[in-house]
Amino acid sequence: RNDQVDFSFGAEIGAGGYLAPMEADDEASSDLDTDTNGVALPGAKTIGVTATTGIAVGNYVMIGTNGTDSCEIRKVTAFDDSTSPKTITLNAPLGYYHADAEEIQEVGYSGGLISTLTLDAKTSDHMRFTPGAWESIDLPDPTMEIEPRYFLGSGAKRNFYSAYKGQQSLSGTLSNFELLNGYPLRFPIGTVSTTGSDNGAGASTLSAATFAGQYEIDVASASGYVDDDYIQVDVGALSEVRKIVDVATNNIFLDYPLLFDHDSGVACNEVTSPYTHTILEAVELPGISWQVKNRDSTENASNDWIRRYFGGKIGQATLTAEEGGTLRMSWESAPFLNMNHNQYDHSGITAPINKFDASNKAVTVEKPDTEPYYFSQGSITMFGVEFARVANFTININNNLEPRYFINSSGERTPSAIFEGRREYSMTATMVLPDSISSTASTKTLFKELLAEGDYGSGMAGFDIALVFTRGANDTLTITIPAAADGVAGIGGNNQGAFIRSANTSVSTENPVSTEVDILFRNMSIVVKDSEPVYP
């Protein structure tokens, strides 16, 4: 039943490293019990270990100290005890940062289940976020390229002689969902930094450097920090806000892993709302994981069908709104590296079936209770003129992603990596013409801007655009073109703003007369101010 489906997503720090903090009972001492040999970073599939005694391909290991650190569970797909250090290869990349000498233990696995698979008691689901109010998803289940071969002289009578497995591709679409906050906005663009308002309580600094993927930090003094309050780590472009879930001496445990590296000595102040989230472009797009749980009509959890897609990037996206409606977004194209699921057995195949993962567990999805951004709350300003008669607009983002399939020995025929191409932005809008003016008036209009081509006498500069949606006090979404970091549009490379490519004012039966505007622009930035402290 579609009304029993839960969909959620989470950020990835390393490509394919989905964030799923888990614990399980350890196996007998005769099975693998070792440590990391060297640092294991988010996104790593092959990691160094001190020993491989007792290891077996197909068994599961828990990386991280049970109940205290970033525990995550992966299946072993290969190991090599002839190298220095010895290595094990996992079925999916790591999601968290793991220091040298962290514990690795085999966990109990039988009949498609891991014994006592639980969420770390100190934290929460890290793939818990929902992008907004959605209705349908085209999920990125694998598309199998089955290739027929026609061998001559085989007696096949023009039919293909044999079929072979080709590459697998995974690409999904989440269309036309209503924005309830700014969570999904950064994924087709880049990074997000968050700052809050100082609450005058805990105020200290990091006593040691931290790394992306950690959710335990050490501060010089934990005085004033309180469980369930929020802490801002660092300032400026690297600032992040996290909920405090445990304070022990000068160690603070956070509810969500850090997305940036932070130097020792940076500020760590307790903060409160409003929170300001600044979204800026990045060369490499952030990774994203999707998870879907289907539940049957009897609501029997033991029958849940769970699929997890990882290593994703948002290739194409749109932001759109029209009169009488709400601000909506679409993730038009989202290719992924791979997936796993919880369907273990098959009567005709020796279990487990392809892409099965016994650590695949249902997620408690966090449902926002905020209002959408209504079209009636928005304003659009172009070349310094606010347009009150906008009927609709759409912003298009295209990252021209290209999945690549490199040679590898894993046996997987899924993409090896997803690379970003040229970034393209455009905007279309329907605007009702303003009141008539004298033909000699100097008023800026769309028609005049079209003819100017963004050249105001000194070279092509383009113009500025600002879109602002205001839901209330300290609750705004602002899109700035060109990006706020660049300031205003100017002449020269890496400095120009927006250009009108067409503004066709046709004669039709509709009144009042309107113009269909097509705009090209170079870059943009987004600032969201709201009461949501933690952005994935």
Structural overview:
The chain is an all-beta fold and 536 residues long. The protein is 1% helix and 42% strand. It has one helix and 36 strands. The strands form seven sheets. Strands 15, 16, 17, 18, 19, 20, 26, 27, 32, 33 and 36 form an eleven-stranded antiparallel β-sheet that branches. Strand 18 and strand 19 form a beta hairpin. The longest helix is centred in the C-terminal third of the chain and has 7 residues. The two termini are 29 Å apart. The model has no long low-confidence stretch (mean pLDDT 92).
Report a brief summary of the structure.
With 536 residues, the protein is mainly β. Helices cover 1% and strands 42% of the residues.
Helix % is: under 10%
The global form is globular
Query: How big is the Rg?
Result: 26 Å
**Number of β-strand runs:** 36
Class derived from helix and strand content: mainly beta
- Main sheet, how many strands, which sense, barrel? 11 strands, antiparallel
Q: What's the average pLDDT?
A: 92
Tally of DSSP helical segments? 1
How many angstroms separate the termini? 29 Å
Strand content: 35-45%
Query: Can you tell me the residue ranges where pLDDT is under 50 for at least 5 consecutive residues?
Result: none
